């Protein structure tokens, strides 16, 4: 029911928010040439040396000329910071530019590793059974702030620099600690992005149920109004004996008795429109729109007892009045940042569900008794709720697509940049949403051979048209066409 079109939209949105702010390690920048502070310049030199020293203590291979590679024990091998730092693109560039520093601490690194292994912080670290990324970060921050900072061998190596100062040494250690701490923040951001993707899909399914339940909330308000009219001062004959055609609607009675809807709302309160903030105002506005319509007047004059007609009435009202209304759109915006994008697709599925509730009934033969029988169930000719996902592949699609982009973002970005005419476009000033859309499209093209190419291309071009700039659709189309051609020539993909 949550189809791949919606999953693609949500995955692109979450990727955009995440990648726009993502940076595995926020590496310090060199001091400006105009910065005359010798301590600041020395601190940055220490910072570079300590980054490399961390990689050595983590037993991370650094290639030719790197010097000693330590044999770490089992606990330290589980620490993920060293390898994550080495694999960071910015760090890889930094290593390439500073290869002359790789063997700088080889005279003391073995002794330093022994000191780390004997430290209280390391013994505490080893005792933890389930190490989290935050534990890894905290461990290295403490090691460098205490063991490394006080190690005589490290200080002797750094004293070879004529600019050596204890102030600069301390500043360099603090810069390293700051860099490692940003990684912990990034990991938390990643986990939140993955959770937001799952949450956004669940909220879409909540909205589907909420849209189905709107007629029930509107009808209950009308019942309340009719009851209040009976008890007002000097009620009219119409107040005392109102037309109950609307409030006795058989389709609404069926919704009221649908156990599947009740169970879902019990577990997901957000799916009940009656629980929404200012729901009474929403119901009132929608009811006023409905009662002022010609469809309402015609319905009120029709004969009761026809379930199919009652269901068709609400389907028409939802399609022509409720779903297009500004009142509903405003409420969606206040309830969830996701729902404004979801309503177009979820309303389609809600209408489909409503249509199926009476499609098998013959209008001439459906009686009031038929409606009463149907009102007690949610299937077999009444209302059959659509499943959250069509199958397991669809359920896994969003999370997999997200991971493919995250794991291969640099490779996908290089593919995209390779086909951008730099005489006309500054790659750094392109709409970043276009880049994310294209990376998601490439991930799908490469990793989902069963999805036809035209389907993938059309879907992401449409997303670009709807969510990026006016020129994005044609731009994305052109770049993806070139990427597909290259991938086909290289044998990466075989589909046509």
What are the segments in which pLDDT stays under 50 over at least 5 consecutive residues? 362-381
Number of helices: 23
Give the end-to-end Cα distance, rounded to a whole number of Å: 28 Å
Rg of Cα set: 32 Å
Shape: elongated
Biggest beta-sheet profile: none
Name the structural class.
Answer: mainly alpha
Share of residues in strands:
under 5%
What is shown here, in short?
Residues 362-381 have low confidence and may be disordered. The longest helix is centred in the middle third of the chain and has 65 residues, at 166-230.
Task: Please characterize this protein's 3D structure.
67% of the residues lie in helices and 0% in strands. It is elongated and about 100 Å long. It has 496 residues and is mainly α. The protein has 23 helices and no strands. The chain has helices at residues 4-21, 38-57, 74-77, 81-87, 89-97, 109-117, 120-127, 133-150, 152-158, 166-230, 237-240, 250-256, 259-267, 279-291, 294-300, 307-322, 326-335, 339-358, 368-374, 392-417, 432-447, 453-467, 472-489. Helix 8 (133-150) packs antiparallel against helix 10 (166-230) and helix 21 packs parallel to helix 23.
């Amino acid at each position: 029911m949550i189809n791949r079109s919606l999953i693609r939209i949500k995955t692109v949105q979450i990727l955009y928010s995440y990648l726009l702010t993502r940076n595995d390690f926020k590496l310090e920048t060199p001091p400006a040439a105009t910065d005359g502070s010798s301590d600041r310049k020395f601190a940055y030199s220490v910072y570079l040396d300590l980054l490399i020293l961390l990689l050595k203590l983590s037993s991370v291979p650094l290639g030719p000329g790197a010097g000693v590679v330590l044999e770490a024990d089992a606990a330290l091998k589980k620490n993920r910071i060293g390898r994550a730092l080495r694999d960071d693109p910015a760090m890889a560039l930094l290593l390439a530019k500073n290869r002359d520093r790789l063997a700088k601490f080889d005279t003391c690194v073995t002794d330093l590793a022994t000191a780390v292994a004997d430290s209280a912080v390391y013994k505490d670290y080893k005792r933890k059974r389930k190490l989290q990324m935050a534990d890894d970060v905290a461990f290295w921050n403490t090691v460098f702030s205490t063991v490394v900072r006080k190690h005589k061998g490290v200080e002797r190596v750094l004293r070879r620099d004529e600019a050596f100062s204890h102030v600069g040494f301390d500043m360099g250690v603090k810069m390293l600690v700051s860099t490692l701490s940003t990684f912990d923040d990034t990991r938390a951001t990643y986990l939140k992005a993955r959770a937001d993707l799952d949450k956004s899909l669940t909220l879409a399914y909540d909205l589907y149920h909420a849209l189905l339940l709107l007629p029930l909330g509107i009808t209950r308000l009308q019942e309340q109004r009719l009851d209040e009219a009976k008890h007002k001062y000097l009620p009219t004959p119409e107040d005392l004996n109102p037309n109950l055609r609307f409030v006795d609607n058989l389709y609404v009675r069926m919704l009221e008795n649908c156990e599947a809807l009740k169970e879902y709302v019990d577990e997901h309160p957000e799916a009940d429109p009656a629980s929404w903030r200012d729901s009474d105002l929403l119901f009132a506005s929608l009811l006023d729109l409905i009662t002022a319509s010609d469809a309402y007047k015609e319905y009120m004059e029709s004969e009761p007892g026809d379930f199919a007609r009652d269901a068709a009435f609400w389907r028409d009202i939802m399609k022509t009045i409720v779903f297009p209304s500004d009142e509903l759109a405003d409420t969606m915006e206040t309830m969830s940042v996701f729902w404004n994008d979801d309503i177009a697709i979820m309303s389609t599925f809600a209408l489909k569900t409503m249509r199926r509730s009476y499609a098998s009934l013959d209008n001439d033969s459906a009686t009031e008794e038929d409606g009463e029988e149907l009102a007690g169930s949610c299937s077999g000719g009444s209302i059959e709720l659509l499943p959250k996902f069509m199958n397991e592949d669809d359920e896994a699609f969003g999370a997999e697509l997200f991971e493919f982009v995250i794991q291969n973002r640099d490779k996908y970005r290089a593919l995209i940049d390779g086909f951008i005419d730099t005489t006309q476009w500054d790659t750094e000033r392109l709409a970043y949403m276009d880049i994310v859309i294209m990376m998601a499209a490439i991930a799908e093209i490469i990793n989902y051979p069963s999805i036809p190419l035209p389907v993938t291309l059309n879907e992401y071009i449409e997303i670009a048209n709807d969510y990026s700039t006016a020129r994005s659709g044609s731009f994305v189309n052109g770049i993806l066409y070139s990427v597909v051609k290259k991938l086909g020539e290289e044998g990466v993909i075989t589909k046509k």
